[in-house]
Amino acid sequence: MSEETLEASAQFIRRSGGSPDRTSLEGEVCAAVAGFLTALEALVSQSGVNWRGNRPPHSPRKAHMPRIPRDRSLDSTLAVLLDPYGFISNRCRKYRTDLFETRLMLRRTICMTGPSASEVFYDQRNFVRRGAMPERIRRTLIGRGGVQGLDDAEHQHRKQMFMSLMTPERIGELAETVLHWMRAYSRNWAAMDRVKLGDELPEILTRAACAWSGIALEEREVETRTRQLTAMFSYAGSVGPKHWWSRLARKRTERWIGDLVVRVRAGELTAPESSAMHVISFHNDLQGRHLSPTVAAVEILNILRPIVAVSVYLQFLAHALHMHPPGIPSDTSAGARHREAFVQEVRRYYPFFPAVAAVVRESFEWKGYRFAKGRRVMLDLYGTNRDRRTWDAPGEFRPERFDGIQPRPFAFVPQGGGDHDLGHRCAGEWICIELMKAAMGFLTEEIAYDVPEQDLRIEMRRLPAVPRSGFVIQNVSRA
Length: 479
Ligand code: HEM
Hints:
The protein has helices spanning about 5-15, 30-40, 75-80, 85-95, 115-120, 135-140, 150-165, 170-190, 195-210, 220-235, 240-265, 275-280, 295-325, 330-350, 380-385, 430-445, and strands at about 50-55, 70, 100-105, 105-115, 125-130, 195, 355-360, 365, 370, 375-380, 445-450, 470-479. The strands form 4 sheets. A 5-stranded mixed sheet has the order 3-4-10-7-5. By secondary structure, it is α+β, with helices and mostly antiparallel strands. The site of protoporphyrin IX containing FE (HEM) has 26 residues, from α7, α13 and α16.
């Protein structure tokens, strides 16, 4: 599709009020679940769930081997669209199983939930990521050639590049930059009738993400770059004009960042040595070559885009502070512990990524079930964070469950499970936690505000779900 057509789509969205802007943060959509959304176009029909043990063709099964329970509907894509967060865990609970097989986008897929499933999913001897991601998602959310689709030595080498950016000092600098912009924006909020955090936060985070990554943004660029970075995760899984706008946003941001990479390499621009722009521009792959400008841009966008997506968690944080006001202890160290526990509970309780996907590397058995080579497997992140075997009263918001307790790497998986350095667990998890803690301090100690009447329900059919109102505050003043 030509850029003109993409631009026409973008204009159509703006004119039709479904503006591809920061008001509708539909989500930093995980590749696999966004694949569910794209499948809407390919959906043939949906019949009821019919649970039967059914032997897959061409997969010899030993006589004693139990069958993976199978959803016999032609395709479950529509069911996922209607209930993206509950699809896997509800069926597993109903049929008392940790796994079942179905078709999503007409492709046979094993769905799994729970801490044991998470442990086997993140054992890289069992799975690869290459080929797990639908093409449409690569063209919007992720891009081509990025770390998410790499395996083995290539993946570990690239992942180290990301992890080298995640030092406590650098993360502290990012949190300070975000706070700087929150304070600056809040001076305007005092004069505004209603402040929709869902509109304000993406711009704050775009400014901070670019500055932290060594990218100088001109003032006139801020709005456009915010819209583009937001569109990549908001509309990646959408169909129609929104999807095309998301593609256009990726094309334009890759071109923007790719040009900067070329200029940094040529010495026409400088970026601090510890910044993402510098580190990624001069990173060598395992063959000792720089990444192509496009792949370098994809990886720099793997920093910028998710930092802007933290705005979704910050809306949830504000929502939780309102719905479950914390009694912050005045003692500093108890206060810090309490803040951390509150933030962890926000990440456990609220929905963000429903699931992640991988492909079976070589056939193997787990709990007696056969996983055939090449089969796609989806791990239920949301359901695992609410699994009754791990969490007491999982549907209740209880920060104290994290008080002084280190979460288990396969049971608490809002940003993936396992090991950050060796596996595919989110590289930006500590950034996320620190930005949420900083924002919590800001919202509870630096400003005072009222929360007016509004629709505070969480829109669970969107990816990720967001408060319907975008979380509005008013009467903002310095505390
Ligand atoms: C907004 C909140 C965030 C959420 C909910 C989130 C969630 C996730 C999830 C579920 C994965 C995939 C895990 C897997 O494939 O098993 C992931 C991967 C990743 N995330 Fe995040 N993330 C967030 C923020 C960030 C931030 C702030 C950064 C960087 C600044 C980041 C960088 C990455 C990278 C580079 C990967 C790929 C890791 C790999 O494949 O090895 N994310 N994230």
